[in-house]
């Protein structure tokens, strides 16, 4: 069942003091900076707690950068400490608008709701997952869990995709990090296309990407994935007006190619990509054993 809860505006509280994503989380010599949005005019700017212009909405253990036009996040970047994930995730809290930016700059209930006969709605798909942000001390984990429920951290996803193919990838990444007590940095976002289908006035991304960075010895390593919800949307009753990108569903993609598709500069992650020497942009290596064979042993 999809959520149909009304969204209210959160109190400012301690939001201005959140530390957000840490670029040096993996170590001083394995810096993973936030991606740079090449089209700077598309980024939503706001005034932070000190009155300075900023594009980074800082939360507990993660940060979000928003699109001004699309009213969705361009990306969400999270640090995950696999050794500090609680055995049981904190209880889910209600979705909230972030008071640091205008409600009109966030998508509340336009496309989200419960699917009924003859109707179609989307789930609020976390970009940084609750369980990924909910780590650290008891208080830190509770704040990470609560912060993950701010609207800027959500994008519209068909529930079959959100709770199936996409969730499977997310579960695999976190399970491997927890099993070895590893620290990883996870970047996630939609692929915006000017021809994305429009639903109730909101352009719906057909494709989502996820990039994982970790330290192997003294070296920085990274890998990226792209998955499509197009087929799920079609099967469940919403037919997109256009067909999006092709050939990358459920597969690993070179970070250099991802950079071109998203118009994001991933900095050192391009050369850290374990697939950087591949001649193909999309590598047919996405399988249950890929993460273990090509990442943890890399």
CATH homologous group name = Extracellular Endonuclease, subunit A
What is the distance, rounded to the nearest whole angstrom, between the alpha carbons of the first and last residues? 40 Å
Counted beta strands: 18
Share of helix, binned: 10-25%
> What would you say the CATH architecture is?
3-Layer(aba) Sandwich
Biggest sheet: strands side by side, in what order?
A: 5-6-7-11-14-15-16-18
Under CATH at level 1, the class stands as: Alpha Beta
Helix/strand-derived category reads: alpha+beta
Keywords:
Extracellular Endonuclease, Chain A; 20% helix; alpha+beta; 7 helices; 298 residues; 8-stranded antiparallel sheet; two-stranded parallel sheet; globular
Describe this structure in words.
With 298 residues, this protein is α+β, with helices and mostly antiparallel strands. It has a single domain (8-296), classed as 3-Layer(aba) Sandwich (Extracellular Endonuclease, Chain A), CATH 3.40.570. The chain is built from 7 helices and 18 strands. The strands form 6 sheets. An 8-stranded antiparallel β-sheet has the order 5-6-7-11-14-15-16-18. It has a two-stranded parallel ribbon with strand order 1-8. The longest helix has 22 residues, at 159-180. The radius of gyration is 18 Å and the shape is globular. The N and C termini lie far apart (40 Å). Mean pLDDT is 84; it is low at 240-249 and 284-298. InterPro entries: DNA/RNA_non-sp_Endonuclease_sf, Endo_G_ENPP1-like_dom, ENPP1-3/EXOG-like_nuc-like, His-Me_finger_sf, Non-specific_endonuclease. One of its GO terms (molecular function) is endonuclease activity. Residues 59-273 form the ENPP1-3/EXOG-like endonuclease/phosphodiesterase domain.
């Amino acid at each position: 069942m999809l959520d149909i809860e009304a969204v209210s505006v959160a109190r400012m509280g301690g939001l201005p003091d959140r530390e957000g994503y840490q670029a040096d989380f993996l170590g001083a010599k394995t810096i993973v900076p936030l991606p740079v949005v090449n089209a700077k005019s598309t980024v939503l700017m706001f005034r932070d707690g000190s009155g300075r212009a900023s594009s980074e909405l800082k939360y507990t253990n993660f940060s979000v950068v928003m699109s001004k036009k699309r009213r969705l996040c361009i990306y969400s970047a999270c640090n995950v400490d696999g050794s500090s994930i609680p055995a049981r995730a904190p209880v889910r809290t209600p979705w909230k608008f972030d008071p640091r930016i205008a409600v009109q700059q966030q998508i509340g209930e336009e496309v989200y709701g419960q699917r009924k006969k003859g109707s179609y709605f989307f789930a609020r798909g976390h970009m940084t997952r609750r369980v990924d942000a909910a780590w650290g001390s008891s208080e830190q984990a509770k704040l990470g869990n609560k912060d993950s429920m701010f609207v800027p951290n959500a994008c519209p996803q068909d529930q079959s995709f959100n709770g199936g193919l996409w969730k499977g990838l997310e579960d695999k990444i976190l399970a491997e990090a927890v099993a070895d007590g590893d620290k990883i940095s996870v970047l996630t976002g939609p692929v915006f296309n000017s021809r994305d289908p429009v639903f109730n006035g909101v352009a719906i991304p057909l494709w989502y990407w996820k990039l994982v960075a970790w330290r192997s010895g003294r070296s920085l390593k990274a890998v990226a994935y792209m998955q499509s919800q197009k087929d799920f949307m079609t099967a469940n009753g919403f037919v997109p007006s256009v067909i999006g990108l092709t050939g990358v569903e459920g597969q690993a993609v070179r970070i250099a190619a991802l950079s071109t598709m998203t118009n994001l500069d991933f900095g050192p992650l391009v050369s850290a990509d374990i697939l950087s020497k591949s001649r193909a942009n999309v590598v047919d290596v996405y399988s249950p054993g890929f993460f273990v064979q090509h990442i943890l042993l890399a």
